[in-house]
Amino acid sequence: MIDVTLENFETEVIAASMTQPVLVDFWAPWCGPCKVIGPLLEKLEAGYAGRFKLVKIDSDQEQQLAGAFGVRSIPTCILLINGQPVDGFMGALPEGKIREFLDKHVPPAAQEPAEEETAPEDDTPTDPAAQLEKLKQTVATDPANDDARFDYVKALLLAGRTDDAEVAFAPAIAKTALVRRFDSLQRWMDALDFADSAKEQAAGLDPRIAANKRDFDARFAKARLSMAQQRWTEAMDELLEILMRDKSWNEDLARKTYIAILDVIEPPKPKVAEGQIPPDDPTVATYRRRLSSVVLS
Q1: What percent of the chain has pLDDT over 70?
Q2: What is the DSSP secondary structure assignment for residue 143, as one 8-state letter?
Q3: Was domain 2-103 assigned CATH 3.40.30.10?
């Protein structure tokens, strides 16, 4: 267990999560439930023998970090993998529930292999049309499979089949407030709609920004146009320009849109041998670090 502050956050949390899951425990000295769950988390960290790393952040002393993660009550625990929050829970859960939470995300316990472990063969079709057809069949067979639906809608959007994507996405619209990746797809589709209606505005955006670096409406419009054209890094660079000047502009809209882009550009993780964590995409990793650096500066 490590106590984390703003000074060592990048090293102990972001960088560390690139090689193992990191569980961040937001607590405070006056919090009764924190005193219950704290020793339990330390016990689990020891029992899981390196399968995840536990860090603690005093939310009173490190209000900037607590605010960056949207912490509203304590104890709050957030799990990061590859520099990105992937799940979390609030309150002093019993040990069994915490184990269930961890087992969904951390690598399984190592077993003595009978022979050298190799990564499983990837049976994903390489032909884009075949990939789409397989995803379509998976969604049709299992409509509740959120991962398959996300991948299917994303593939349709990448292929320029916006109308088909909207039809495939329709059953998931009610989940956008609960499933972040669905919210990310919705933001992408909103950007496509915006691009269709804002073609005449595009030429005037750069002059507006040159005249006023804090014309955030123009910068955000430019980012959405880049997003619609799948110029992802250009869009994120523009959003970073907003965040560097006003982190909470328009109810955190720039940060939320930036995270949406990270969600949609992240490629599927390659299959690896059991117990290993697949490598992160270099572009995604770089832009996650840039976001973290700006938001926490």
Answers
A1: 90
A2: T
A3: yes
